[in-house]
């Protein structure tokens, strides 16, 4: 009797709970349908295509997001036009099926692109950055990765889907400029494999690719890149991180673990908010999102700041690789593409709940981000067996060719010189700073002044007087940057190829000559320290 009574009570509770949830489910269904229709048929001049109830709902969401981001109507209309284009391009309406995308150019590792393809992509990014009608389209997209979005897009399972949608929106914006470009990914495991402490000399951070890696970015396609809040884009790759330990790039073992380990078969095992997996290097519980954090810290400066990170174009190359790693996992657990992986979304609550709205993407839920609708095709990462993706200029196969394991990764080449544009050192003030050596830098900025200018976050990123002194030293600075040396090294026009240390010195001095870019105060943190650094 007692057991029957207990079952009856439990049944009544379940019926009651379900009846309470039913109105919310109906509301959510209507809301998602309304917002989806509003964006799919978005018209910046009128909302008359919507029924009155949906008009009100859409304008409430529009105003809410506009206030969150502190955007103008011009910026909001641009974002919605991109979202409309994405929905129309990717949505599969026939039979309600979700298939992996075909017929699109595959995303490949940035170093394997031809010079022409890389130039086209980087040129489109620069064009996207250039203000049009007083608005930078690049900055408008970057601003979506805001403080308001932080809690929706990080620290939970929606991290993967949210950033996939974000990449697709960014790629759509680039393709509106040049239809023949696709995003490339920066496989930072190829730089992790560089021997010893040579990572700071990786060719990835040179004028040929992403631009120099320490101080203000003064060469490459993104030279003198201005940040939305003011200041020049700066980096500090593989640098000291006060007060924390040295950072790390993405580890090959972690990528291989989530891509091939047969015991990791569910999203709950790779995301925050789930069970995670055991990090083989530390023995701690780990996730793919945490591994992603490490590279943000390794690049440093803007990339280390959660909100400001998209201000560096490297953000999108890094996240395209994170998406590639996720896709390897998805293909492992769904090799035939016949499983709807939305049903594998972890059952969590709060901002990352399966059916919670995805911030910034109207009519899309967190669960939808796991759909195959938005999956992109990827070229395999460079290995010895595929000839390093055809790139011998930037990558090499260790030991010169296939050995016992032909699938082992290629390794990034290092550089011993880089380009310094004349404009980076031509002004008289800059020349005077170069000639004065670090003693003057210490006198001008000193520990207290430097801390005041750059604050703890910047000191963590490595622009401390001590770091400048240890990097260059008085004798080295005078030898490399005295007036005579600068006259020889840098012509009045064009650029000169000098040592990486010399390039760093010019770029760091440039960073010290201007106020630091504003940061949010929320920083990515390393979960693993590379002792080689």
TrEMBL record:
InterPro entries: Di-copper_centre_dom_sf (IPR008922), Tyrosinase/Hemocyanin (IPR050316), Tyrosinase_Cu-bd (IPR002227). Residues 1-19 form the signal peptide. Keywords: Copper, Metal-binding, Signal. Residues 511-533 are annotated as: Disordered. It comes from the Eukaryota. PROSITE patterns: TYROSINASE_1, TYROSINASE_2. Pfam families: Tyrosinase. Residues 154-171, 312-323 form the Tyrosinase copper-binding domain. The keyword Metal-binding applies. Residues 520-533 have a biased composition (Low complexity). The keyword Cell inner membrane does not apply. One of its GO terms (molecular function) is metal ion binding. This is Tyrosinase-like protein 1. The lineage of its organism: Eukaryota, Metazoa, Spiralia, Lophotrochozoa, Mollusca. The gene is Pfty1.
């Amino acid at each position: 009797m007692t057991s029957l009574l207990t079952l009856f009570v439990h049944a009544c509770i379940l019926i009651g709970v379900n009846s309470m949830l039913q109105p919310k489910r109906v509301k959510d269904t209507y809301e998602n349908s309304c917002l989806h229709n509003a964006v799919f048929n978005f018209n910046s001049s009128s909302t008359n295509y919507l029924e009155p109830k949906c008009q009100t709902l859409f304008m409430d969401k529009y105003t809410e997001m506009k206030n969150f981001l502190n955007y103008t109507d011009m910026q909001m209309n641009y974002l919605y036009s991109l979202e409309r284009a994405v929905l129309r391009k990717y949505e599969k309406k026939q039979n309600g099926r979700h298939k992996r995308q075909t017929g699109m150019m595959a995303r490949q590792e940035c170093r394997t692109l031809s010079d022409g393809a890389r130039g086209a992509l980087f040129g489109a990014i620069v064009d996207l950055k250039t203000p049009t009608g007083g608005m930078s389209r690049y900055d408008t997209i970057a601003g979506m990765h805001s403080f308001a979005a932080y809690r929706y897009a990080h620290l939970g399972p929606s991290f993967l889907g949210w950033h996939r949608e974000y990449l697709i929106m960014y790629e759509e914006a680039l393709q509106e400029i040049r239809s023949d470009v696709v995003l490339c990914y920066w496989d930072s495991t190829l730089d992790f494999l560089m021997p010893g402490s040579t990572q700071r000399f990786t060719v990835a951070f040179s004028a040929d690719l992403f631009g120099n890696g320490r101080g203000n970015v003064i060469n490459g396609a993104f030279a003198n890149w201005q940040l939305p809040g003011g200041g020049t884009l700066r980096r500090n790759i593989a640098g000291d991180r006060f007060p924390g330990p040295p950072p790390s790039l993405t580890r090959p073992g972690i990528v291989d673990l989530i891509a091939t380990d047969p015991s990791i078969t569910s999203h709950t095992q790779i995301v925050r908010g789930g069970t995670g997996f055991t990090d083989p290097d530390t023995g701690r519980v780990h996730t793919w999102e945490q591994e992603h954090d490490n590279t943000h810290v390794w690049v440093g400066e803007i990339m280390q700041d959660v909100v400001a990170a998209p201000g560096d174009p490297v953000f999108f190359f890094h996240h395209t690789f994170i998406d590639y790693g996720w896709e390897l996992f998805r293909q492992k657990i769904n090799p035939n593409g016949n499983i709807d992986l939305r049903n594998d979304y972890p059952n969590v609550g709060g901002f990352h709940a399966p059916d919670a709205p995805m911030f910034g993407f109207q009519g899309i839920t967190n669960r939808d981000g796991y759909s195959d609708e938005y999956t992109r095709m990827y070229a395999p990462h460079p290995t010895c067996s595929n000839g390093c993706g055809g790139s011998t200029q930037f990558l090499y196969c260790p030991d010169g060719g296939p050995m016992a394991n032909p699938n082992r990764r290629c390794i990034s080449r290092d550089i011993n010189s880089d380009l310094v544009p004349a404009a980076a050192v031509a002004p008289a003030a800059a020349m005077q700073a170069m000639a004065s050596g670090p003693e003057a830098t210490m006198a001008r900025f000193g520990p207290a002044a430097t801390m005041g200018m750059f604050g703890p976050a910047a000191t963590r990123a490595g622009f401390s007087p001590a770091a400048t002194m240890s990097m260059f030293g008085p004798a080295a600075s005078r030898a490399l940057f005295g007036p005579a040396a600068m006259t020889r090294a840098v012509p009045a026009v064009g650029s000169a190829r000098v040592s990486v240390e010399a390039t760093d010195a010019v770029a760091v001095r440039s960073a010290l000559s201007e106020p630091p870019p504003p940061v949010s105060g929320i920083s990515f943190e390393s979960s693993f320290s590379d002792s080689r650094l």
